[in-house]
From TrEMBL:
Organism from which the protein derives: Lentibacillus populi
Pfam family, one: DUF402
Name the UniProt record assigns to this protein: Nucleoside triphosphate/diphosphate phosphatase
Sequence similarity: Belongs to the Ntdp family.
Keyword RNA-binding: no
Length: 175
């Protein structure tokens, strides 16, 4: 699997464990694309929900996907700082249609001061029962939640100082 080419535009598809399409981000600009890492940016991008509702993102965002980790990270640049929204989900795959991953409901919201909240634990438990998540998937997801929280606390990867700002500067060169 080759990654998308830097400078290209891609769609991002999020699915649920049962294969149902969950959400589509219409237009993201690839800043770095390899087999293992995709870093993309978007601003005021159209999003389509599974029920057909649409909305538009409010601010510039840098999106980080890795093929070895069961999470992805979105750094949103707001006037009062960088907020992160982290999805616990499968590693990404990329094909000619889009970058794709399975969303497993658990999310982490990180504030500019690097405090965080774990979100949607009830939704995770509900979907785990409804869709019969295998025990091994449950273990992998919780282990990767632990990795993600470690990255946040240690300011690693996209949480390191200047990561989001640096990639946003690169994004601006394409505009």
């Amino acid at each position: 699997m080759a990654g998308p080419k830097a400078g290209s535009k891609i769609k991002i598809y999020s699915y649920k464990h049962n294969g149902q399409l969950h959400r589509v981000w219409e237009n993201s600009l690839v800043l770095k694309g390899t087999e293992s890492i995709v870093i993309a940016a978007n601003d005021k991008t159209g999003v389509i929900e599974s029920d057909g509702r649409t909305w538009v993102t409010r601010e510039p965002a840098i999106c980080y996907f890795h093929s070895s980790f069961w999470f992805n990270i979105i750094g949103m640049l707001r006037t009062d700082g960088i907020y992160y929204y982290c999805n616990i989900g499968s590693p990404f795959v990329y094909d000619a249609e889009a970058l794709k991953y399975i969303d497993y409901d658990l999310d982490v919201k990180v504030y500019p001061d690097m405090t965080f909240d774990i979100l949607d634990e009830d939704e995770y438990e509900e979907h785990k029962a409804q869709m019969n998540y295998p025990v091994i998937i449950d273990r992998i997801l919780h282990k990767n939640l632990d990795y993600l929280l470690h990255w946040i606390r240690q300011r690693q990867g996209p949480f390191s100082p200047d990561f989001i700002d640096g990639w946003y500067e690169r994004y601006l060169t394409y505009r």
